[in-house]
Structures are given as structure tokens and as C-alpha cells.
Amino acid sequence: MPPKIIFATSTELVALPPAAVVCISADGNYSMIRTASGDTYTLTLQLGVIERRIASMIDESDNRFIRIGKSLIVNRDFIASVSITRQRLVLSDSRTFRHEETASREALKALKDFIEKEYRHD
Amino acid sequence: MIRHEKHDIGDDEIRVISSRTSSGKSGSTHKGSRCKGMWIFVCAVIIAVIVSAIVILPKILDTSDDYDLVVELPSPTVQQEVTAQVSVDEQPLMKPYTDISEKMVDGMRFLVFTPRDAVPSLAVGDDVLDDSTAVLVAQAADVRRDNGAILGAFVLDGELISRGQSKSGFCAIVDGSLTIGVATATPMLEKAIESEGYFFRQYPLVAGGCAIDNRPENKALRKALVLLGGEPAVILSLERMKLNDFSRALVAMGVEDAIYLVGSEGYGFARDASGEMVTFGKRGSQSAPNTSYIVWR
Fold first, then answer.
1. Which residues of B are less than 8 Å from A111 in CB distance?
2. For FRET with B153, which of A42, B98, B191, B259 sits at 20 to 30 Å CA-CA?
3. Which of A29, A65, A73 to mutate to test the interface with B (most CBs of B within 10 A)?
4. Considering only alpha carbons, which residue of chain A is nearest residue B15?
């Protein structure tokens, strides 16, 4: 069984394989985890706490998760398009689901530059 | 206490999450625009220079009249009242009670209820109104009119019974210690859950000794949960007033932090040192099942 990322509070537990997590968005005191199967989980954890938990549980070579600004973490494997002018980020597996998120123009430009640079290196 | 949320990433930045650093935070942060940060830095330096000039120049010139203009002190009347209240606090009494005093600000009268030797908690339902051990009870969170649910996040004995962030003010009770703050996201919610404590949300009125503007413009009897001299208290207006005027009056009284409590006819009571009960608001025969109270016992 592939390793899972476990998010636990005193009253809740969500255990997901990293590959299943599409994005995690912040909503005040809560964070919403969206999975490739369409499920959503709301946790009473702030995004900074989620980020630290992901970092503590993933393999050293795993760098699929990217924090975008204060309110969003995305799984780069699901990034389908980045539109700086529309401030839109489309996450999709190109088959079963499509989900849109927004972020600042500056962050999306940094994301676009980063992905382009990564692929050039590859 | 005001909790300022620490954001270690800007909205214009991205960061690859990696396990390579011990803190769990990735080292590679990418910024979209460095010019923006540079401008913010330049503005901050200019503001710092201006503020320094305003604060230091009067001292250099050594004119007491100018100094008085810079430092705004509360009115002498309010200062005396607060000092008197602090001296009462020094009396060692183990039996819980509520110290009840009256204050006057700009011709408006207020009652200040300060619980002594009592532990705060939250309660849902009217049973607490018949609790003989309670020394101060006031309605806490608002209830939605459409479905009767508690408005905003609410933690009761460590259980999150309502979610949401409709108002940015909050009160958290962790290990019997009460914290008032303003934050859309606060770790105090998790702490309240983990410590089997309490949490609710309301309008913020005062933060760090500064009044916070709120939208409601109507005049009503107002009520607030405050930190005054570092101690929690409930203050209610004896006259109808606008919410913003109420906030400013709280600041004039020396309140450091405050959030709103269900005002107008929201029912509550206090018991003074002699056991005499003082009530405020109206006790309805059929209040909503989710009516919540902050209570000191």
C-alpha cells in the first residue's frame, strides 16, 4: 500500500495518498482538501500547519506539492493551465475532473516561470 | 490578547514543499515581483523616519505643551475609575462573585461586570440561567434566524459544534484562561479543541486599545466582552448607542481588547459579593435552543 499523508486533529483524521490530493485551500480557520476522486475534506487546521505536516510525511524526493501564496497548496501533477491575466489556475487529470482556483498574478507568474524552468532542466 | 497571525509566505510567492529542511519548510521560495517588495521597504523607511521625527522632535525641543499634544491620555475621570477598580482586585477572596461598577463616558452610562475568583466557560441552552453557582452569565454568539444554528465557529467542551467564520472577532477559553482577539484564522480554535476548551466568534470592537469600525449604524443597548487591565469583564451600555460609538467609549474606559456580545435584550445576570443578583435584558419564555452563554462560576 502506498504511503499516505495523515492529517489529524483531536477530533478528525484524514489519510490520503499524496497522488490523490489535488489541492488544499485555506478558508479562515479551515483548510479544504480536494481529491482526484472528487471528495472534499474540511479540517480545522490552518494551511501553514498542513504544509508542515506534508513536508514531514513525504519522501525526500517528493516535491509535487507547491504552496501558492497564503491560501493554496497544489499538487503540480494536476496543473493543467496557468492564466496570469485571468488569475486562474486549472487543475485537472484531463479525464475525469477539472477544478479552478485563483491566485495573485505575481504568484501565478512565479509558478509559470518555475514550471517552465523545471521542464527546461528536465 | 490580540493574536497577530504570522504569515511566512506572501500572496505573491510560491514555495515547493519539501522534507529536506528540518522545520518542514522548503527553502525555495519564488517571488513574482521584487519591485513591489522594494517599494514597500522604501515606504516603510519613509514612514519610520516621519514617525521618529514626530516622536523625537518634541523631546529635543523640550516643550511640555508640545508633548501633551503628541501623547493622548484618557480623561482624568476614567483614569481614576480604573485605578479604583484595580485596588479592589487585590483583595484575596476565594468565593466567586462579580464586581459591579458604573462608569460614565461622554455623558453615557455603562455597567462593568468583573468576575472575581471565577472560571469562564461557555454553555448552550437556557439551563445555565438556573445555575446557582454561576456568578456572571451573558449571551455569547449570535444565532442564525433562518435555521437557528450558532453563527460562526463554536467550540463547547472541546467539541466543534458549529463551523464558519462570519465575524473576525473571537473569544477562546483554554485551560480556564480567556483570550480575545481578531483574526480570520487563529490557532486558538485548535487549542480550544485540543484542551477541551471553548471558542466563539463575534464582531470585534477593540483591538490593542484601538476601536474597530463596524457596519451596524442603528442605536441599541450594547454589550461587550472585554479585557480591562488584563482581566475579563462584561460591559453593557445603559443607553442606546451606535456600535462604533460603543467601541470608542470602551477605548476611553481603558479597554484593551473587546468583542461584541448579543446586545439589546440579550438576557444575563451577575451575582455580587453579597450574593445579590443583578439581571439585564429580557428572559424569553422560548429562546432558541442554540442560544449560547458565556458563564463564570
1. 14, 30
2. B98
3. A29
4. A67
**Which residue of chain A has the CA closest to B30?**
A110
Tens of pLDDT, residues B127-147: 999 999 999 999 999 988 888
The per-residue pLDDT for B60 is: 41
> pLDDT-based confidence at B31, cuts 50/70/90?
low
Phi, psi of B80 (to 5 degrees): -65, -40
The phi, psi pair for B3, rounded to 5°, reads -100, 110
- Is residue B236 within 8 Å of residue B278, measured between CB atoms? no
Grid cell, residue B65, equals 505643551
- Dihedral sign (CA A101, A107, A111, A113): positive
Backbone angles phi, psi at B230, to 5 degrees: 80, 0
Query: Is B158 in contact with B196 (CB distance < 8 Å)?
Result: yes
Task: Determine how β-strand B169-174 pairs with β-strand B177-182.
Answer: antiparallel
pLDDT, residue A9, reads: 75
CB nearest to A63's CB, from B16, B160, B193: B16
**Which 8-state DSSP code applies to residue A78?**
G
Please return the burial class of A96, using the count of CB atoms within 10 Å of its CB with bins 0-12, 13-18 and 19+.
exposed
Q: Is B193's Cβ below 8 Å from some Cβ in A?
A: yes
List strands edge to edge, sheet with B231-237.
B97-105, B108-116, B231-237, B223-228, B255-260, B204-207, B210-211
Q: What's the pLDDT tens digit per position in B176-199?
A: 999 999 988 888 998 999 899 999
B295: closest CA of chain A, how far (Å): 25
| Listed residue (A111, A116, A21, A71) closest to B14, CA to CA | A111
Cβ B194 vs Cβ B16: under 8 Å: no
Residue numbers in A near B38 (CB within 8 A): none
B21 by Cβ neighbours in 10 Å (0-12 / 13-18 / 19+) ranks as exposed
* HSE-up of residue A43 (Cα within 13 Å, Cβ side): 24
